[in-house]
Amino acid sequence: MNELAEVAVDAKHPAIKGEYYYIVPEQLKEKIQVGSRVRVPFNNKTIDGVVLRFLKKEDANCDFCLKEISAVDERFVLPPFMLELAGCLAKYYAANIIDFLKLMLPPDVGLPKESLYSIAEAWKVESFRSEIQKEVFRVIRDAGSITSEDISRILDLPHSKVKGALSSLMKKGFVKREFRVKIENPSFREDSPKSAFPRLTFEQAKALNEIKRNMEEEKKPVLLFGITGSGKTEVYIKAIENVLAKGKKALVLVPEISLTPQMTERFHERFPGKVAVLHSRLSDGERFREWYRVYKGDADITIGARSAVFAPIRDLGLIIVDEEHESSYKQMEFPFYDARQVVRFRAEIQGAAVVYGSATPSVESFYKAIKGEFALLKLTRRVTGKPLPPVEIVDMREELKSGNKHIFSSKLCSEMDSALSRGEQVILFLNRRGHSTFVLCRDCGYVLKCPHCDISLTYHISDKKGKCHYCGFQVDAPDICPKCDSRNIRYFGAGTEKVEQEIKSRYPGVKVIRVDADSTSRKGALEKMLWEFKLGKAQVMVGTQSIAKGLDFPRVSLVGIVAADVTLNLPDFRAGERTFQLISQVAGRAGRGDIPGKVIVQTYCPESLAIKAACQYKFKDFYKEELFNRKKFEYPPFYYLMNLTFTGTDLAKVEAAAFKVKKILEEKVPQTKILGPIPAPRFKVKDNFRYNILLKSSKQESLIKAGDILKNLKGFDRKVYLSWDMDPQDL
Ligand code: ADP
Ligand code: ZN
Ligand code: ZN
C-alpha cells in the first residue's frame, strides 16, 4: 500500500534539508513512483523533491499531521540504480541525497506544450450537450490518443474551439490529458561515414584485445596510457562498438566539450544518429531533449563533460574517461564531487567496464595501475609515425648572467623571429593561476618552501612574509638568497597581460590573442578566439593552461612555455605533476600538421625532474620520484585529504567557528592530522572572510566520518557557512 512516501526535499537551508514523509493523495496514486520528481508543501512554500520509497501509515510512527504531495512530474522516473548512486555519493561526500538527485534531474523546463488527449479510464457513455464536444470525443475514442492540433485538423475546426471542448470534456472526466515529450534531437545527424575507418595499428589492436578480455575476465578498470596522437580515441570507438553489439550502452566523459569539438564530431561520424551530447552550452530545452533521449534509451552513446556522469543511462556497459588527469573532472563547488570517483561507484552499481585514458595519467591513477588495481595498457607510438617534437629547456639564470632581464630569452626571441617571418603561428603559455606569487632567486633558482608541506610559500606583500597555505607556517621573506647569497631574490609572478604587452612592443603590427579567465568570461568568447586564431587572424596566441588540451592548429610551429616556474611553484602539492602534464601535453600537440613543431621551455629550475622528464619524454622517472615525495610528505595516493572552508562576514565568528570545529574533530576523528585553521588563499571574497582547515589521513574512513560529524553539527554559528571538500583538487 502506497499510503505514504518518503521524499527527499530540496529545502534551501542545509540544516532542514533531508527526507520527510508525505501522504500520497488518492488521485496521484497511480502516477507517483519511487524515483518520481514531486512538488511538496514545505514551510508554507511548495518545493521540489524526489520519492525515495513508500511505506504504510503505521510504519511511519509520527503522530503529527502529515501533508500531501501536491503534484508529480509524469515525464520520467529516476531509475533505481540512480537512486542507489545518489545514496552512495551522499555518504561519501557527507551531503544530502537530494544534493546528488538534483544533479540527475533534467533542467526544469516546465511541462511541454505538446500534449496528448485520450479517453479517461472510467468513462460513462453520456449525451453531450455540445455537438463539438461529441465530435471531439469521437475522434479521441477512435484514435486512442491524439494531440489537440490533430483533432482540429481532422475536424477542420479552429484550435481554440477544440481546446474549449477538451477542457469541458476533461472537467467532466471523459477524457484525460497526458504529456508527451517531443523529441527533436539537436545532436542528430544524418551524415554517413565520410572517410574509411582506419585499421588499428598493432599496438591499438593489442590494447583493444586486452580491454575486451578484461571486460570478460578480471573486470578491472583499465588505464590506457597512450602518448598524444597514439590513437586512443580509435581504441575507445572500437571498444564501444563491441559493447553496443552486446546491446549495451556507453558513456564518454571529456574534460570540456567546447575545447574538443573534433572528438564529438568523430563520434557523430562513426555512430550516426546514436550519439547524445550533454554540455553546458545547450539551452534548457535542448538539454532536456538530449537528456530525455538518453532516458528513453534512444541514444547508444552519451558524450559530455563532468556532469554527464549523472545521465540516466540504463544497461550501461562501458564508461570512458578521456584525459583522466584533468582537474576539471572535479566540481569545485558544493557538493564537490569528482566525476572520476562517481564513475567508480556507478560502474560498480551498474556492472559497467571503465577505461581511463591519458597521455599523462594522474599520479593517483598511475599508482593504482602499478599496484594492480587498474589494468595498465600502453600506446607508445604516434599513429602517423611522426616523432614527438624536440623540447628545448632554456635556463633563465644563464640568461640573466648574460644581461637579459626580459621575460623572453634570446633563444625564444630568435625562434619567434623566424617563425613569424615564415608566416607561421606561435603560442605562448603561462600558468592559469597568475595571482599566486612565490619567492625566487633569479641567480640560482632557489625557491622559498614550507619545510613541512613541500609546497612553495606564498608571498604576502603587506608584511613581506612567505606563508604556507596548507599548514600556516610563515617566515620573513629573505633579502638575500640563503643558498647563494645573491640579492637578486624577489617575488615572482608574470601575468598574461604582461606577456601580451611585451610581444606588442617587440613586434609592432603582429596581432596577439590573449586567452585567459578575464578575456573568456563571456559565453562563447573562448571558442571565437580559438576559431579566429585557427583562421590566421592573429599570429600569436598567449594563453593559460586551459588552452593546452584543445590545441589543434596546423600552422603553429613554435610553442613556448614562458615561465615553467609559475606552474612548478604553485602552492599545491600537485605542482610538479601539473608542470609535467603541461609540458607533455603541449609538446604532444605541437607539430601536428605538416610543419615540424618546436617547443621551448623557460625556467629558473632546469634540474626539476618534472621539467626534465617531460622534456625528454621519460615518464617513468617522473612518476617514480613523484610517488616517493608523495609518500614522504603524506599526500595522495598514500594519504587522503579533506579541505574545510569556513565563510562569513564576521571575521571573529569565522575564526572562532574554525577553532571550535578543530577541537571537535580532534576529539572524535581518529588517525587524522588537522592542519590549520589558517586564512584561506583568497582570504576575503565579496566581504566574506574565509578560513581553511586541512585534514590528512591514511584512512579514508576517518575522513568520511569527519564529514558525517560536520554534516550533523548542531549549535553551529548560523552566520558562518561551513563546507567540506573530499579529495580536493587545485588545493
Ligand atoms: P589520441 O586520442 O591518442 O591523441 P587519436 O585517436 O585522436 O589519438 O588519433 C590521432 C589521429 O590518428 C587521428 O586523426 C586519427 O583519426 C588517426 N588514427 C588513429 N588510429 C589510426 C590508425 N590505426 N590508422 C590511421 N590513422 C589513425
Ligand atoms: Zn640564490
Ligand atoms: Zn606547510
From TrEMBL:
Gene3D superfamilies xref list: P-loop containing nucleotide triphosphate hydrolases (3.40.50.300), PriA, 3(prime) DNA-binding domain (3.40.1440.60)
InterPro entries cross-referenced by the UniProt entry: Helicase/UvrB_N (IPR006935), Helicase_ATP-bd (IPR014001), Helicase_C-like (IPR001650), P-loop_NTPase (IPR027417), PriA (IPR005259), PriA_3primeBD (IPR041222), PriA_3primeBD_sf (IPR042115), PriA_C (IPR041236)
Positions of Zn(2+) 2 binding: C450, C453, C468, C471
Tree of life domain: Bacteria
Any Gene Ontology biological process: DNA recombination
Name of the protein in question: Replication restart protein PriA
Cofactor note: Binds 2 zinc ions per subunit.
Signal sequence coordinates: none
Enzyme class at the top of the EC tree: isomerase
Source taxonomy: Bacteria, Bacillati, Bacillota, Clostridia, Thermosediminibacterales
NCBIfam families, per database record: priA (TIGR00595)
Cofactor: Zn(2+)
A Pfam family: PriA_C
Record domain Helicase C-terminal: where: 456-645
Catalytic activity: Couples ATP hydrolysis with the unwinding of duplex DNA by translocating in the 3'-5' direction; ATP + H2O = ADP + phosphate + H(+)
Keywords: ATP-binding, DNA replication, DNA-binding, Helicase, Hydrolase, Isomerase, Metal-binding, Nucleotide-binding, Primosome, Zinc
Domain Helicase ATP-binding: 213-379
